[in-house]
C-alpha cells in the first residue's frame, strides 16, 4: 500500500517556500513549454482531466453569455458585480456576499475580521492549508496574525483536536475540500462536531470553500446547510466554475461592511470588474448544475485509473470530482510521455506531474470535468496502455 504520509511532509518550510514561489495551480515551467502543453491540450480529441484551454475569444464568449452586454457595467460597484454578489448570497444562504479579485485577499479580510471581533490574533489552521502553501503567509505578513496547528494529519482537524488546542484562537479555518491532502472532506457529522468545538472555544469558523461548490455530494447537504455551520466562507469563481478570476466572501451584513472597507484598503476596489463578474455568472449557469455529475463520474474514472499497473489513487473513492493519482515513473518521464501522447494521438491523459516523496513515484491531480464524461473505464484502460507504451519506448 502506498504510504500517504508524504502529503504532510510537503508542509515543511522548504517545500512551502518552493510552492509559494509558483502559481497556485501548476508547477512553474518555461513559457515555451507551457504554450506547447496548452496547444497540445487544445488539439486533443479527448481530454481525461480538466477542461480544454480557452482562447481569449472563447473567454469573451463566456462573458457575453453571463449577462446583457448592453447594460451598464460596474463603477467600483453595482452592475453585474452586485448581481453576482446577490446571487452568491442566495445560493449559500448568507446575509451578504462581497466580490473580491482573489481568494487570497478575501481570506485575509475574513481572518482579520475574526481577530478584531474576538481580540485574538491566533488562527487555527492546517499546515497544508492554502494560506500556508500558496499565499506567502499573507495572514501573518499583512495582518500580524499567528497560526496554531491543530493537527498535521492529512485532513481537517477533528473536534477533539480543536478542543486540545494549546491556546485560545480567534478563528478556526477549515478547508473544504483540502486540496493538498487529496481534495479530502470530513463526514457531515465530523464537520458539525468540529465547528461546534470551535464555537465552544469562542472562536469564529471560517471555511476556505474555494471548491465548496462540489462538496455537497460527499457531505450529503445543500450549500446553505453547509455554510450555516460557518461564520464566513470564501468561494472561488474559477477553480470549479471555469470563470476568468475572482472570488466571494460570504457571511453576515456586518462582516460584508467590514469586507468592503478592507477590500478597498488591500487595493481590491477596482474601477470595473464586469468581465470577471459576467464570466462567474456564466459559470454558475453552466458549470454549477453539472458538478454533481462530475463527482459521480469521478468514481468511475478513479476505479479505472487505480486498475492501471502500479497506479495508486487517493482518496478512493474520490470525495469530489478531483483526486490524486500516483504512477511508478518520474515526473519528467510522465510529462514527456503525456505530451507526446497528446501531440501524436490527440489524447489528453493528465498533465502537471511532480515527483512524490514516495520513491519511484510521481503524482498529479485529476479533475473530472465535462470532457471526461465521454470516457468509459475501457477508454481509461486503453489510454493507460498507450501511455505505458510511450514510457517504455
TrEMBL record:
Signal peptide: none
Gene3D superfamilies assigned: Aspartate Aminotransferase, domain 1 (3.90.1150.10), Type I PLP-dependent aspartate aminotransferase-like (Major domain) (3.40.640.10)
Keyword Acetylation: no
Aromatic amino acid beta-eliminating lyase/threonine aldolase domain boundaries: 76-316
Record keywords: Pyridoxal phosphate
Cofactor(s) it depends on: pyridoxal 5'-phosphate
Bias (Basic and acidic residues): 13-28
InterPro entries attached to this UniProt entry: ArAA_b-elim_lyase/Thr_aldolase, PyrdxlP-dep_Trfase, PyrdxlP-dep_Trfase_major, PyrdxlP-dep_Trfase_small
UniProt region (Disordered), positions on chain: 1-28
Family the UniProt entry places it in: Belongs to the threonine aldolase family.
Name of this protein: Threonine aldolase
Record organism: Actinoplanes couchii
